[in-house]
Design a protein that fits this description.
The chain is an alpha/beta fold and 239 residues long. The protein has helices at residues 13-25, 44-54, 62-67, 78-90, 93-100, 130-139, 215-224, 229-237; strands at 2-6, 30-33, 105-107, 111-114, 144-147, 154-159, 162-166, 168-170, 175-180, 194-200, 205-211. Bound molecules: zinc ion.
């Protein structure tokens, strides 16, 4: 069983298409989406429609909520606010409804899925590094905690009191994992390639995957849509 966990697509259809092509070729069985399907990029409807066909297991992101009037835009910086207002004007009724109905958290027997952090999920705390994962480990007793929001991809493995940062890991009994799956559509960890996590339960492995995509195409669409040009420029540097 191979599950792809995607987050922070941010309306970047070119990045999403490249990730899904990779997943198709690697025999992914199912998908989970950690939110922020929209915001920043020029393809919000196409991205929501693609995600809707992939999975019902999608949690809410702050940009999704902002685009459908469920988040306070005053908490957004001017660039994010401009993108949220533009996105709100683009979304079809059906796509807005899909985003509006997303839950904050999904849980299974061994995993928790959330956009930002499992504690106070509605406060959208950022998880950037190993220190930030401590409250996540403390908040849940699940073996796996999948999250996004900071656009920085990593796996933190807890073995007793020990913590190890990795890009991939074998799944071992007695270990627990916080997996920041990074961002498909707007990476900010200085690697401009699209990021997501591949959770392979048959092989007992979990890893961050990076995929090249048509960055120039995504940039052209952002500029043509009249969105702030800096949202296009940042894609090339991954920050
Ligand atoms: Zn995001």
């Amino acid at each position: 069983m191979r599950t792809a966990v995607l987050s922070d697509i941010h309306g970047n259809l070119q990045a999403l298409q490249a990730v899904l092509a990779f997943c198709d070729a690697s025999g992914v069985d199912d998908y989970i989406c950690l939110g922020d399907v929209v915001g920043y990029g020029a393809g919000p409807n196409a991205c929501v429609e693609r995600v809707r066909t992939l999975t019902d297991c999608t949690v809410a992101g702050n940009h999704d909520y902002a685009a459908v009037g469920l988040a306070d835009l005053n908490t957004f910086n001017p660039l994010a606010r401009a993108a949220a207002v533009w996105t709100a004007g683009q979304l079809t009724g059906q796509n807005a409804e899909y985003l509006r109905e997303r839950p904050m958290v999904l849980e299974t027997a061994d995993a928790v899925f959330v956009h930002a952090a499992p504690y106070e999920p509605e406060a959208w705390h950022y998880v950037f590094d190993a220190d930030d994962t401590e409250v996540c480990f403390a908040q849940t007793d699940r073996t796996f905690c999948f999250l996004g929001h900071s656009h920085v991809a990593f796996i933190c493995v807890a073995r007793g009191q020990g913590r190890e940062m990795a890009a991939s890991s074998l799944i071992s009994d007695g270990c627990r994992y916080v997996i920041n799956v990074g961002s498909v559509g707007q990476p900010r960890d200085f690697d401009p390639r699209a990021a997501f996590a591949l959770w392979d339960r048959s092989r007992g492995e979990i890893g961050i995957v990076r995929v090249d995509y048509d960055i120039a195409g995504a940039q052209r669409r952002i500029v043509a849509a009249g969105l702030p040009p800096s949202l296009a420029e940042r894609l090339a540097v991954g920050r």
